[in-house]
Amino acid sequence: MSAGQGPGEIQFTVNGEARSVRAYPMERLLDVLRHQLGLTGTKEGCGEGECGSCSVLMDGKLVNSCLVPVLQVEGANVVTIEGLAQGAELHALQQAFLEWGGAQCGICTPGMIVAASHLLSRKAAPTLEDIREGLAGNLCRCTGYIQIIEAVAEAARRGVGR
Amino acid sequence: MKTERIVGTAVPRKEGRDKVTGQAQYVDDIGLPGMLYGATVRSRVPRGKIVKITFGAGIAWDEVVVVTAKDIPGKNCVALIGEDQPCLADGVVNHPEEPILLLAHEDRHLLPKAVKAVEVDYDPLPAVFTIEQSERMATVIWGEDNTFKKYLIEKGEVDGVWEKADYIVEGEYFTGAQEQLYIENNGMIAVYDPEHGVTVWGSLQCPYYVHKALMRLFGLGENKVRVVQTETGGAFGGKEEYPSMIAGHAALLAKKAGRPVKIIYDRMEDMVATTKRHPSRTRHRTAVSGDGKILGGEIEFVVDGGAYMTLSPVVLSRGTIHAGGPYHWPSLRVRGKAVATNAPPHGAFRGFGAPQSLFAMERHMDRIAQVVGLTPVEIRKRNFLKPGLTTATEQVVGDEIDLSGLLDRGLALADYAAKKERFARENATASGQTGKRKGIGMATFLHGAGFTGSGERYLNSLVGVEGLVDGRVRVLVSSTEFGQGTNTVLCQIAAEALGLPYEDVEIAQPDTEEVPNSGPTVASRTVMVVGKLVQSAARGIRQTLVAEGRLGESYSREEFREACQKRVAEKGEFFSWARFETPSGIYWDDEKYRGEAYAAYAWAVYIAEVRVDLTTYGVTLEDFVALQEVGRVLHPVLARGQIAGGVAQGIGYALYEKVIWQDGRMQNGQMTNYIMPTSADLPEIRVYFEELGNAHGAYGAKGIGELPMDGPAPAIANAIEDALGIPINAIPVLPEDIFAAVTAAGDVHVEGRGR
Q1: Which pTM does this prediction carry?
Q2: Start-end of H helices in B573-635
Q3: Smallest Cβ distance to B231: which of A106, A108, A139?
Q4: Delimiting residues of CATH 1.10.150.120 domain(s) in chain A
Q5: Mutate which: B35, B183, B205, B239, vs A, most A CBs within 10 A
Q6: What superfamily does domain A92-157 belong to in CATH?
Q7: For residue range B197-217, what is the model confidence (pLDDT) as tens digits?
Q8: Facing B234 at nearest CB: one of A95, A107, A110
Q9: How many CB pairs under 8 A join A and B?
């Protein structure tokens, strides 16, 4: 599609499925995911790239989907929180968040888990300091991060990044 | 002693799976057919008369639903304690961001342009922006004297103590506003139907507060208003009162449009327009004996309530009662006052007045220690409350609490003595005015659980447990989940009381058509007060089944299930209800503010270790110990999460979170310039519990949610003073504030201080 003003057809892969949407080129990827594709697991917290609640993976890179104009995802491979669990079985990170108290109110949780999966894909055996640094772009107001960090460390021990 | 199977264990969070998979439905995840989006036109001045409203060019106004105060069918107010706050300004505005007009349209992208196109002309009125300006009363903006509420606590004969004192220690302490900053912004969806009335779904803490406000706004009976809580992404008090406003707005638009309307605030609107923690000023004057015993004192505690009363009287109440801390005052006079300013109303935020007055108390204790020449540890030990002594309101301490022992345990956990000595030595030999200084400080404090005084009696909470047709049971409460673990812990309690597996208990979505009024989800009351009622209602289910001969005194899960199924099949709906009853021996005098202020107190010792960089003036927390006695811990993982999260907010309160005000409006209403702690900013928060139990709470639990907000700020300020030798009596304290303090002091000097 062109980067013109009118809506156009955009094709990309979401959670392994080929999708086609009609959208304005400068529409936020966040809105397209939530409103057009019904993938409401990706949350909006601030709309300016500060809080990380809208984190998704785009071609393996961690991005804030509130800052990505949808024209940029043409042909890309996007993974959201809905793409992590395998059917009824939780992803090991999701399981660890459940067990270790990594989710309280839950609004930052999808973005946090996506960011953590990105972290572990780059570093399978992170130190606690690596996790602190790696998740510093995702804000949580409930936990003080302690139990999130422990959950990510536990998921790493269970071999998520390997 | 611990014979329970479920209470005290870390069962999975009831709604946890939905949260980690992204399936949980928050209000903005929900849409209704034909739904419009709503937006709010707000005041751009702090105070003035509305002269003219112009709908500017560039918008097809005939396509926009517009609601003004004239469209309100009932009383134009947000009914809470008072009815002074309008739902929509009518002719006059009293604070920046006050709602004036509502707009709705099906294209949410058009709404910001439409809001901008509405031009409001004002005839400005003089305004007040600080506690001092409000007290001066040169301009009266509320009532006769700018005062929402006053309290006076008098214990003993304070006027006689000054001449007996070896030391009279005075201090003045300030705390700033703080934004709750839940990550899910406020939001609400409303439907109006002439026959069924108003229904709203939204992010909120207190369904029956919203219910009451909508009844008043629409002039409808209780059966014509329905309020449903959707999954709520954090609240911390910030969704206690303002959701009533938003629900009213969405419902007014829905009525006028004849279609469902959704209002979702963006981050800036949420930050600048909704409530924040009350700024405060506290003055202490304390009479102390030569050996460091408090003889008596006067405390004046003032909070800035903003433009309308909202919850200020109750915030003030809690702050006033907590102002004397966990100490024994033979005599004490506390004056509390909530004043009006032309800022958006300040409101509920975790701790609810106590973090403010306890900051002052704990800073003041370190000041007294310096004046008397004792250590911060010793001054506290000489003045702690003990079992049998009385609090400021003359409530006898009933817990077998040993605060000196608790403090000793905290000090050992923090390695306090060794660090204190080492930091003093290293700071003294550090070169010049650069480099790093280290310090360690403490706060010892208490927090009352449940509503203050006669509050629980007035709430008169009702709880239900229902036996279901499939043989499982369901808890019916209006108590809401917003991260703390309400769903999980109340189900644990019911399962324990019934001898059932946790999986056999569920909890109803809070919906005023389905659940009774178990009171608001505030004041650290849910586990202690509502939990106790759940326990009682659950026992009622069992007693009924046993009394009807359907179940023996001991039974298996299968036997219970079968008995419950049969009961429902034969006799229909199967409910058991429990209503709050004031425990005997509880006495409270609302006039004199004397008696049993709270059914239970949690007790705590927090110790902060800081490093201050004299090049950047940044403060880094190196260690944090949070030790508390909270009665029985019903869920170890959730309890630890409550404490760690509250401490993180307290650290933000002390070191990062500064609201910049100009003419009553927050200037930094973004996450980029209002800074909350990230994972890289916080130390490991080390959480420890003592468990004494509590006769008034479910399985011995006390309240826990607010407590951790009280201690971090004073502990950190005390640690910074330990590092620099400069008193920090106002928070938040950002690097520029440290710079200013160091510059004003002319020196950092740490020798010979506070051994």
Answers
A1: 0.97
A2: none
A3: A106
A4: 92-157
A5: B183
A6: [2Fe-2S]-binding domain (1.10.150.120)
A7: 999 999 999 999 999 999 999
A8: A107
A9: 171
